[in-house]
Amino acid sequence: MSGAMDKRRRRTRLRLQAALRSLLAEKPLAEISVDALTRAAGVTRPTFYSNYTDLTAMLDEYLTGLLAEMARRHSAIIDDPERGTPEMLARIVEQALIDIDRSDPRLHTLLNGVTHLTPETRFAEMVEQMMDQCDPIDRPFASEAARRLHPHFFTGAFVGMLRFWVTRPDGIDAKMMAAAFTQFGTSGRFGATDPLPGMPSS
Asked: What's the pTM?
């Protein structure tokens, strides 16, 4: 019975998430009520509240899934012989950009800010775990203070880049964006090479 209930619960959550995505494509989160969501999903209010406490909890679930998939991809990539190189970072970022659905209004809502939900903090926690995975066990990459700062630095850069990426900038694909992120992140603004060769200068 529990297996059947789990499947039913998952189907219900998928319907609710699909309804939220559809409604967010039409109006901001603040204008969406639980009643409107349940009507769109074809479920009752008690069914909604048996799955989520509120709409923010639905976005939290979406964010959790997004971060889990990015972490899974990262774990697969770091097994590559290029582990610890800028090429590896570029591959991780490129894959993340490819995997993310830029048209998903739930992502746009998160990036625009949601009360009581801080994506940057969650991203930073994931980045810190990624850095721990990449560091040699017997040789920490940096001091404790630097290790606390690094995740927040790269998270700020990544989320800022993601906000730009969802605008679908002309002439910049995922590979180019990842190369630029890696160049800026490892060599600074005045790196040795142009991260976006061929792009017209202003």
From this structure: 0.79
